[in-house]
């Protein structure tokens, strides 16, 4: 006897889409195939009319993170106990946050603090990228191998400071010498570089120039964090990765130039991957002129319609492997506190909406296949970041992380549709299809708009990246 059977749904697997039945025993999927009416279970879910996809993987979140845009205070983004409620409602069953390592600490110390902060406080499973920032002592890089062995094989670096330097901010930028050293160590030990890529010289010059010209309005953000900056930084990072043998995952690709650089590198069989945000794909810099327009901002900035087209082309076809949010949950007052190019609050509130928006805009409006939808919302992130095949796929032996999407839902989203903070940037958006049931390791945690799961359901998941992903562009 099984613990759970899901019958009648259109099931999206790596082998295709079919009207199959899923059997779950304990925390794992044990069968996927033709329905056996004689098979019994402790619970049966009728999924007729629904689409069943792998639990979503949010590869880029900043929870319980210091709001650095306003260094005069000590305000933090919402923590996992609050934000992962929205993830669960939105079909995300695993998220990756960041463990920041600055010159005054080291990797083991920072990891211990981050793990303690999350322990028992997440509704969904989780892991951490290790973010390396500032003039780190060289001995820090000797700790990369141990971190990979402990299940943390991804290392985030910034090629620039996103804002002008301020004594109240910890540094984010890692110089290219240290980035090269991190790449060498990552390549040696089976790690992956996760890169926020903008050209620091150009961005900082733009801040200086725009200040001198009196062009401080936040509507100019896309001219400061420019398309050229993305092109220069992506190209330089790819050259360094080629020289060191490292694989690179570019976070929040925002411009056509970034997509083109990644596509070209992949054409040379280099292990280069791009992530974008559904905010970038759905909003442009014109939003900055609207009331509440900075709700849609993160760093790098929103760009132009031509960039939106390139991002969707990469998502529906090839070139952009994953969707993320740069989740940075704050109150509306905090999000709208800044109005100038050097103080607008970055980061997005959108993890709850990610899967529903990508289904609406990708599958319904742009003809994205259901297989591709599962790839860009779950499978590819699992493969690139070392969660596969435990996560990201509906297959025997995998965790029973499952989401039921109702394609018949057709509604204009309102504040009442969301469960995090006091606003959503997706209020007023028309949704065609939306997650209705979320299952984490065989446990139903959200069903028909009700939270059934409990705080602490989420666990830390150790990761190991398949070497194939680090040798060539395998997804």
Range of strand content: 15-25%
Structural class: alpha/beta
What general form does the structure show? globular
According to CATH, the homologous superfamily is Metal-dependent hydrolases
Mean pLDDT: 97
Distance between the termini: 36 Å
Q: Order the strands across the largest sheet as they lie in space.
A: 8-9-10-11-12-13-14-15
How many separate domains make up the residues? 1
Please count the beta strands (DSSP E, at least 2 residues each).
Answer: 19
Describe the structure.
The protein is α/β, with parallel strands linked by helices and 475 residues long. It has a single domain (56-392, 463-471), classed as Metal-dependent hydrolases (TIM Barrel, Alpha-Beta Barrel). Helices cover 30% and strands 22% of the residues. Strands 8-9-10-11-12-13-14-15 form an eight-stranded parallel β-sheet. Helix 4 (176-189) links the parallel strand 11 (154-158) and strand 12 (192-196). Helix 4 crosses helix 7 and helix 7 (227-244) runs parallel beside helix 8. The longest helix has 18 residues, at 227-244. It is globular and about 75 Å long. The mean pLDDT is 97.
Give the helices and strands, then pairings.
Blueprint (H helix, E strand, L loop, with lengths): L1 E6 L2 E4 L2 E3 L2 E5 L2 E6 L7 E6 L4 E4 L1 E3 L21 H10 L2 E10 L5 H12 L6 E8 L11 H6 L4 E5 L17 H14 L2 E5 L3 H13 L8 H4 L2 H18 L3 E3 L5 H12 L4 E6 H5 L22 H12 L5 E3 L7 H4 L18 H13 L3 H16 L16 E11 L17 E11 L2 E5 L2 E2 L15 H5 L4
Parallel strand pairs: 1-6, 2-7, 8-9, 9-10, 10-11, 11-12, 12-13, 13-14, 14-15
Antiparallel strand pairs: 1-4, 2-3, 4-5, 7-16, 16-17, 17-18, 18-19
Helix pairs in contact: 4-7, 7-8
